[in-house]
Amino acid sequence: MRQELTEVLRNKGIADERVLAAINAIPRHSFMDEAFLEHAYEDKAFRIGEGQTISQPYTVAYMTEWLELEPGMKVLEVGTGSGYQACVLAEMGVKVFSIERFKKLHDTAKQQISLLGYSKSIKLFFGDGYEGIPESAPYDRIIITAAAKEIPQKLLKQLKTGGIFVLPLGNVDDQLMIKMTKTSENDYRKEMGDNFRFVPMLPGKIF
Which of 88, 139, 150, 185 could join 76 via S-S bond, C-beta 3.0 to 4.6 A? Predict the structure, then answer.
């Protein structure tokens, strides 16, 4: 079923074989409620509680491909959610620092990531994603897995020069994938991608 999913993603335009291999390696069903297990390898998003979703595999693959990852990089992920995206990133050979604002999701993801053996590659934090994780900055890459209405400036400051920042930008119904490449301390090159639909990025944390 995973192999069939990777073929679907390849046919949709995902060209990086390393990304496809990472998707193929991760048991997506492990991150989902039992009610959805038979649909785990369909290219669809599903609810995971707290009003959040596990993104459809195409979205995960698209964002991962856009990050242009190389082994050994440090990646900040804002919005751990189920932990699925973090595991895909870790499978690409990078060190992941992931922050989640919902304590329940943070705790569940921590348990699942440990069970799958990714604890050494993924460090999880409970907190406000808008603040990032400054104590571990700077990062080679930053990814936001929720829709921001504007680019969070505190996160931009945590990106290395030469680094890439990928996020969906816009309101609830109209979001565009954006890639920001930091060309100097205060300059960025902006690229626009496809339209997607994410839950909104919100400040604060929920116990």
Answer: 139
Q: Give a yes or no: residue 176 inside a domain.
A: yes
Q: Is 55 a catalytic residue?
A: yes
55, 119, 136, 184: the active-site residue: 55
- Start-end of H helices in 12-75: 17-25, 57-66
Please state, in angstroms and rounded to a whole number, the distance separating the CA atoms of residues 97 and 78. 9
Q: Where in the sequence is the domain holding 28, given as residue range(s)?
A: 2-196
> How many domains in the chain?
1
Q: Would residue 28 count as lying in a domain?
A: yes
Q: Establish if 154 belongs to a structural domain.
A: yes
Cβ atoms of 152 and 161 within 8 Å: the answer is no
Decide: helix, strand or coil at residue 206. strand
Instruction: Say which CATH number the domain at 107 has.
Output: 3.40.50.150
Tens digit of pLDDT at every position of the chain (207 positions): 899 999 999 999 999 999 999 999 999 999 988 878 888 999 999 999 999 999 999 999 999 999 999 999 999 999 999 999 999 999 999 999 999 999 999 999 999 999 999 999 999 999 999 999 999 999 999 999 999 999 999 999 999 999 999 999 998 777 999 999 999 988 999 999 999 999 999 999 999
